[in-house]
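This part of the workshop introduces the protein records we will be handling. A learned vocabulary of local backbone shapes supplies the integers on the structure line. Getting from the letters to the tokens is the skill we practise here. As an example, a complete record with its sequence and its structure tokens follows.
=====
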Amino acid sequence: MIRFARRRLFPIAAGAWYFSCATGLAQDAERASPTMRAGMIGLDTSHVVAFSRTINAPNAEGPMKSVEITAAYRNGMPDNEFSRTRIDEFTKSVREMGITIYDSIEAMLPHVDVVLIESVDGRPHLEQARKVIAAGRPMYIDKPMASSLAEVLVIFREAREAGVPVFSASSLRFSSGFQAAREGKLGKVLGCTAWSPYHVEPHHPSLFWYGIHGVETLYTIMGPGCRTVVRERDDRVVGYWTDGRTGVWEARQGYGAEIETPEGTRSAGKYEGYGPLCVEICRFFQTHEPPVAETETIEIFAFMEAADVSRDRGGRSVEITEVMASAAEKAKTIAKSRA
């Protein structure tokens, strides 16, 4: 349901009250277009604070002017240190922004038009997504989309069958340099090495936690089409594309990528923060057109799971099709367990 925008309120010091009043009418007029109410599920990641500040900013531009984060559900995973140790801090920050905190997903959903699933742990995402799908709300799912490729397949299938738009992506994807490389503006891409930090969370495949940022960068530049994956070292994975190109993920400090072109090796740019992703999320909420193809997201997760299979087999080459077939069988079991 579309509501008319109200003024975005943030805590204001008493000394700034007069200035706020003087500028309030202009800001109200600027933001007086129909606005979608967005709800967040999971307050155990710094993304909920960053996204709320970016999307709800009084001077937000473009697609973000038509979306306002108004509601949230706390969630949390006690056995995940990243969740357990940070959820109170982030919940407090979100509440201080004037965002209403609900006691359950079911209580929140009637009060929002679109949803961002933000739980830092991928394990609850499938059940969270099912509740959003049942309510018919378009949703963005933050990384990792789920805790297994099989669950990713189930989410996409159930959302598709219900006609509910969904997408998932790392914020790295929308950095301008990586997009320019994808579009061929930096030269013909003959190969790519992308990197990101590498921290393993024991309840997820090894690259799902932070490695996913580098893998998503790799796929943003190379596009889908990987045939086989080899884990040469714990911190280096090589993919061989069907067209003969090679894509490499490496664990390094920071985020970035280099591409091989006919003119030589060159940088493909750097990480540009959460702003570009927030714009794409809000554009998606308006158009219902995912900025990333379902098939590409699925292949990203197949690549990451294939990396662990290769590791477990002593670094031998693993076919993406083998990993996909195994996940498809597991997805059937997940679907049957719900029936």
